[in-house]
Each structure stands twice: as structure tokens, then as C-alpha cells.
Design a protein that fits this description.
The complex is a heterodimer of chains A (479) and B (355).
Chain A lengths: L1 H28 L8 E7 L19 E8 L6 E7 L22 E6 L8 E5 L5 E5 L17 E9 L6 E10 L29 E8 L13 E7 L24 H5 L3 E4 L1 E3 L2 E3 L6 E11 L5 E7 L18 E2 L20 E2 L3 H4 L3 E6 L3 E2 L5 H10 L4 E3 L23 E2 L17 E6 L3 E13 L7 E13 L2
Chain B lengths: L7 H25 L6 E2 L3 E5 L7 E9 L4 E11 L21 E6 L5 E2 L7 E11 L3 E10 L5 E10 L8 E11 L3 E7 L3 E6 L1 E2 L7 E2 L14 E11 L5 E6 L4 E2 L2 E2 L15 E5 L36 E6 L3 E13 L14 E6 L2
Parallel strand pairs in B: 1-10
Antiparallel strand pairs in B: 2-3, 3-8, 4-7, 4-9, 5-8, 6-7, 9-10, 12-15, 13-14, 15-21, 16-20, 16-22, 17-18, 19-21
Classes of the chains: A mainly beta (479), B mainly beta (355).
Amino acid sequence: MRSAKRFVHVLLVSVILAGVLLPLYNLQHAAAAGAQLTSREIKLSDSSASSNGVTTHPGNGLNVTYRVTFTVSTAADSLVIDFCGDSPIIGDSSCSVPTSMDVSTAALSNVSGPITSANWTATGSNTGNPHVKISDNTLNAHPIGPSDSVSGVESFDLTGITNPSTTGTFYARIVTYNSNIFDQDDTLGTTGDNYSSASTLGTYLDYGGIALTTVKTISISARVQESLTFCINADPQTTGGAGQGDPTLWVTTHTCDDTVVTSNPPTMTIGTFAGTTKVLSPTVVDHENMYSQISTNATHGVIVRIVTSNTACGGLSADGGTSCPIAPVPLLPGACNIDGSGGTGCLAQQIQTGASSGNAEFGLFASNGENDPGTTSPGGAQFTTVNANTCLANEQFNAGSPHELADPNVAAQTGTYYGMPWEVSNAAGISSTFGAIVFQCSGPVYRVDNWYQFAATPSLSTPAGIYKTNMSMIATATF
Amino acid sequence: MSFSVLPKHKAKRLLTLFLAVLLVAGLTLHLFSSTSYGAPLGPRSLELSKNTASDTSDYDLTLTLSTADTLGSVLVQFCSNDPLPNTPCTAPGGFSDSAAVLSSQSGPGDFTISNASTANQLILTRTASVVPVEPLEFNFTGVINPSAPGSYYVRLITYASEDTSGPDTDYGGIAYLIMSSINITAEVPPYLIFCTGVTISGLNCNNALGDFIDLGELSSTSTRSGTSQLLVATNSASGYSVTAGGTTMTSGNNVIQALASGDVSRPGAAQFGFNLTANSTPAVGAAPVGPGHGFAVPSYNQPNIFRFNNGDVILSQPAPDITRVYTASYLVNVPLTQAPGVYVTTLTYVCLANF
């Protein structure tokens, strides 16, 4: 008796539940004649929210490609993808608009699966809620769906979509239709079975919801600051001997921080030792070596100029420039080239000893830049890569082969040409406001070494005295 | 009112979670925080007329706009730490642009230095208007360099506003250097080159040969003559002088009268003298040669006029002079009554340079 009573109760409850749930099911799927789409996904080429201030793609959420993939179980002629901000539930009466999402220019491409006919088109619209309708012009072709030759896997791209402007989850609702006018029976508007909106789907076949999300853009920045390193140093005067100031021989760091640089500032006395004092002699051309190393990441290269503090004397003076007994080497008249190709003139000249020429002269030789060999292979590799840019000396200081020094460590000043463009009228001379170009590099360079040789000789009539000049080498990089 | 106390292990877990959230939040904020920049400037450079510490220099600044937009001001900031805009700037020690004068400019050409500029920050302002993509160049005078050698930086930022407020348009940095100057010294010692010889070839004292002149047998009917040479060069600021010392020609107590006041050659008369130029009667001697510029004093520089006084200054060059070779022409005439004998004299030339 009790069992029979319990059975009746269970039956009544079941009837009640069936009465409640079945209408609910029909509310959701009353118009569905197919099944749920399987293996469905939408892959975004850019998950950034739009209007985020980023101007580059990906990252700005604009012109995004949505790759749609799903597997159908029922042959169909068209489909609709609705985008909603609140729910993926098919037929849900609520479908909020994802903020600022725009599918109006969506286009179909990269199709695989049965939707391969050129007749297939996609039409996007933001009316109501963003949605894209895809259909075939061929009536009742039923190209969507399983057949003998395909598995029912559909994949295509929708391009030109603007993501929602807010970050977070939004949804896509996909439904397929029997006809190519988004209904069941190709009688648009007459039987009420056609698609109208996300909440009024009409009679559809397969269906499925997909969740998507937009996120904040990850912005990563790194800055390389402008850099310029340039140092000059004299040959050690007391230890090491000639040539020891050469950067190729630096042993501490091989950079401008090397102790040779810091311990040998460019203060030089030109001459030959007479006892403990260096003096100039009219019978020889005395010289002193100086070295430099330059590195910069300047895109447009670097120019190194030399400028004298004494605008009235480009040579050596014993009275602060009032007189200029040891004059700058005169240049060969004519046009000057900086590119090392050889000009018609304005070249450095050979200094003859004052005893034979009667001239007291002061000049400078500057080498072309050379890669510092360094001591380690990483350095060597960098030189090969970075220093494709060359550093060429001004012909006013380097007349080129065979009148240049091949090696600063070889005392081969005989035959070396020196220059010192000074003339007051020379706007690019060493006494001009910004000085004369010594050498220039065409682009970024790393550890380029140059050497210089200051040479002087007095004439037999050069008054006795201590002669001086102060000069500056100024590196100007163009970044 | 009630209080609840969490168990110890829960409190610890909560604290750990809180710290983790803070850490994630911090990292996330760092990732997503970015300063808004305009576009990087095109080629830009800073050229100094002097790059030594504390020197007053011209600064020639060139920058190329990369955005055609409204341009109202340019911020030129000098820093010792880095060239990165919109980061803290450390003013270079000793640097000052307070007295900078915008001496010339190119581009729009109507910039002025704003009163809002500071010691390490120049604000260039103009009436805002659209400027095309073009290079701008500013030449400033009176800028005092930093007081220590090293690397320094310029930050450049352009603005549409006239007072560097609001969003920037273009930005960029420049690195420049302050260095030690090159000091070159050379000493020229005082020197005097002087030598004598019967001949000195090649303007070189190493080639001086001979110190004895044999005039042969003297005659009352013909003149006897001979030559020797002197080479002089000095860098003495006051030049040099040469004196001749000695006696006339003598043979024991017998002498040949010296030409104390100068005279032409008179065969048959007792005459001893010399000069330092070319003569025709007799044909002896030569003008000075060499790149120098000296000449004998007038009394010893007259052709065919010979003279000798002990201690006479025969050469005087008031300025430094390079190599000069002088030829001394000696003349001797004797009368019939001249006592026989071997007549000799020794002449000494003394060169004096006044340094």
C-alpha cells in the first residue's frame, strides 16, 4: 500500500516536472530541428580591447580576424553568428551589445570544409546586436554539413572585425538554417520561421554558443639611450716608449676606461731629448703620437673636429698667439675631399726640415679609423658586424697612400704628409668656430681606433723659446 | 559588537595571498604603465665650439622634426644622467645656459628663449602654428660647459603648446662629451751657427776647409788678394754681430800699413784691408749667399773699397737669420821700399748673438 502510494507520488512529481521542464526546453529549442554544434571555437588574431590607445596591430583590437571552427550534424544552407555581451544561450531573450564591437565590414575568407563555393558571402551588421549572416546563393544546395566526402568540420575566417572596447567576456551564438535565406522553408516572412534577431531566431537547425574574451594589451618597452664615447691619450712619456699609447696595445679594458688613457692625458712635448729636455732642432722633423678610440650608436654617424684655442695662430706660439713663428703647414691649394677619394688639392703636405727649407712648420697627421682588434672573440665578432661603417680621415690631415703612416709604432715620419688647415678665411679651418674635420664615420661604430702624429720643426731663425698650443678634439654625433 | 579572530594558519595564508595579490598587481601595473610619447625626432646633433670643462662655448643644436604638426615650443634639457625624456634629470655640475643667447636659427625662424628657462633647461617658444617636417637649427652662444669631463646628454621634446605644457609631439636625445684639451709644447733652444774657412761649400759648416791663405810674393806693381768665408745663422731674437780682430800684416818690426779709413786698391802703396762683397778692382770676392738676409756693415760692404781696423764690427744682423755665407776679400799692396820679409797676420772673427 505504502509502495503503491510512493509510486503515485513519484509519478505525480514526474508529471509535474515534465510539465514544467518540457515547455522550458521548447522555449530554448523549440525551433531547433538539428543538434548542438560540436568542437566549436572562435580564434581571435588579436584579443585586445579596441580603443585602448595602442596604435599598432596586433594590440589595438582593430581589423581583427575571427577564425570560426565547428562541426555540424545537419546539412544546412546558411548560418548566423550573433555576438552578445551577456549570454551564449541560444534564443535567450537578452543579448546585450558588446560595447563598440563592429562587424559591419566583416568579410569571409580562408574557408575550408564544405563552404568552398565562391557563391558564399558574409554580411555583417551592427543593427540590434553585432551579427554576421553567411549564406549560399544556391538554393537548397545544403553545402554545410556531413557528406560522403567531408566530415562536417567547417572553418572560415571573418576579417575586419572591431573587438569590443571593454575587456572581459563576450559571446557568440551560432545557428544554422535549412534555407539560404535563414529559415526553414525558403518562404521569407510568410511563416515566421526566419531569423530576425538573436532572440528571435526562427526555425534553425544546429546551434551552439561560444565564449570569447578581450584582455588588456601587454605593452613591453625597452629603451636604448644615445651614447657617445670618445677618448684621446698621448704616448706614455716616461715608461713604455713610443707606440705604447696605441689602443691596440691597451691591456686593461680595451676601452676608454683603460689605465693607459687615464694616465696619459693628451699633453705632449714635441722634440728630441737634449739631456733631459726635449728640444726642437732645425735639422729634423720631430713628432709625437696621440691616439683615440670612438664608439657611438648614432644612426647618422659621428664627426670629429679639431679646433685651436688660438684663432690668430694655427701653429705654435711662444707668446700666446701674438706671433706664430712655427706656422701651420700650408695645404696644397684646391678642393678638399673628406671621403678619401682624393681631391684636386687642399691635401696635407710633407714637412721639410727647417734647416733645409728655411720654414718652421707644425702639422698633424690623422689616420683612417681602424677596428680595435681587442683580445676576445666576442669583441672581434662585434667589430665585424658593427663596423661596416667606415671612419675616414680628412685629406687635409691625411694625403693617402703612400704619404700616410702605416703604423704609428714605426718612426716613419719621413715621407709622411701633415696638415693644419688654419687660414683665417677658412670657414672649416682649425680656428673656425667649430674647427676642422679630422675624421668622420658614416654610421654607428664600436671601438674604432685612430692615431695621430703631431710634427714640428723650427727653422734656423725660429726664435728660441717655449712654444705652445692648446687644441680640442670635439666629437659630434648625429643620432 | 563582536570580533572574530582568524586562526593563525588562516591569517598566514591570508597574508600570503594578500602579498601575492600586491605583487601581481605591482607587476601588472608596471607592465601596463607607460609614458605617453610622441614620435622620435629625426637626425639630431649638438656641436660645441669648445668642449673643455667650464669653458664658455657656442652650442649649435640641430634637430629634425618627424611630425608635421602644430609647433609652439621646444624643450632643450641638459642632463648628466641620461637622455631619456620624461625621466628625472640631474643637472650637470657647473653647467649653465642662463646667459645663453640664441644668436641664429633656421626652420620656422621665430623662436625665442622663454623666461621660464632654467640653468639647465632652455625653453624655446614661438607663436604656435603648423610646421612641416623639416630640420631646425639653433645656435646658442654663451653656454658654460659642465665643470667636469664626461658624458652629458640633451633631451629634446617638442610641444604644440607655447610653454611646453600638454602632450609632446616629437622627442629625442643627444649625447655629447666634455674632454680634456690637447696641450702641445715644443722648446726651441737658442743656437748660433758660425764657422770660418777658406771655403765653405753647401752652406754647411761641416764643409768648411782651410785656415791659411798664401798671397804669394808681394809686388809694388800689382795687387795681391785672397779670400776666406764665414757662415752665420742664429735664432737670436736680436740677431748677431761679427767683429774682426787682429793686426795688419807684419814681418818682425816691419808692417804693411792697414787701410784704417778705407781705400781703393793702389798698387805701389802700402795697403792691407778687406771687405765682404764682390769687387772688380781687383776682381775678387763675392756677395753673400744663402737663404739668410744678412749683409756686411756698410763700411765693409762697398765694392773695391777695402778697410781694416782691429775690433771693427763687420757683420750686423738685427734679427734672427738663417744660413748666410759671407766671402772676405783680402787685399795687399806694397811700395818698392817695403822691407823684405815674410809678412803674416792672424785674423780672429768673433760672432756674438744676443738672446
